[in-house]
């Protein structure tokens, strides 16, 4: 595990609250950010998949970063998603995030065009060279169509501002090899791999489920760090039913998180969860709350 995690261990991939009319709700964002930090989040990742980045404007993205930075101050890190399919646009977003006060940027592999590995590497280096804050690479081939191959990760690890990875590659072997050979901080981006990745030297997680259960997810890491491995596994098992419903039920995590939080509508093409799905989510959420140790 990295001695000093660059952005903390327990990070929430925060939803973007909207008003009933679908406008950006900065007041709601400030309140949610404050609550998440009070409930144990070391960092907040904004304008990612969960934050509905495909349907928010550049101006909205910058306003959200500025508002959340003001709300949390130095109590937590703020990482801004700046990914796009266009390197030039990604650089612009990264510079705007830095100017708005972000502590780092999350940069996804360019999608749709499926660039070869040399182009993927060049893309990340262009962004890293354009800003003065650290980068977290986002490896999620299931959405982008292209993964960041381990050999590419090894080369990128030499850049002084490329410090972390949000890992959604579902390749524990490849991730373990990179962890063993670099100082990159690996954050699980898939709740079912939070504990397994942590156990092989990962740094923590960037979690959608943390929007609604930040204490419970953090407790798994705390127990593991304290040497209570069996307890960490037990606490992790408690989170799985809710995580499965939120992330693997056929509905996007943004939709399920907003359904539980009541944080306003989602933007099209997403659609809100139906009554049956919401009822199921609430049952799982209440079960997790009821089974959690006192104080969580």
TrEMBL record:
PANTHER family in the record: 4-HYDROXY-2-OXOGLUTARATE ALDOLASE, MITOCHONDRIAL, DIHYDRODIPICOLINATE SYNTHASE
Enzyme class: lyase
Known partners and oligomeric status: Homotetramer; dimer of dimers.
Function summary: Catalyzes the condensation of (S)-aspartate-beta-semialdehyde [(S)-ASA] and pyruvate to 4-hydroxy-tetrahydrodipicolinate (HTPA).
Pathway the protein acts in: Amino-acid biosynthesis; L-lysine biosynthesis via DAP pathway; (S)-tetrahydrodipicolinate from L-aspartate: step 3/4
Signal peptide (from-to): none
CC annotations in GO: cytosol
Annotated catalytic residues: 138, 166
Organism per entry: Streptomyces lunaelactis
Protein's recorded name: 4-hydroxy-tetrahydrodipicolinate synthase
Site (Part of a proton relay during catalysis): 49, 112
Keyword Cytoplasm annotated: yes
Family: Belongs to the DapA family.
Subcellular location: Cytoplasm
Catalytic activity: L-aspartate 4-semialdehyde + pyruvate = (2S,4S)-4-hydroxy-2,3,4,5-tetrahydrodipicolinate + H2O + H(+)
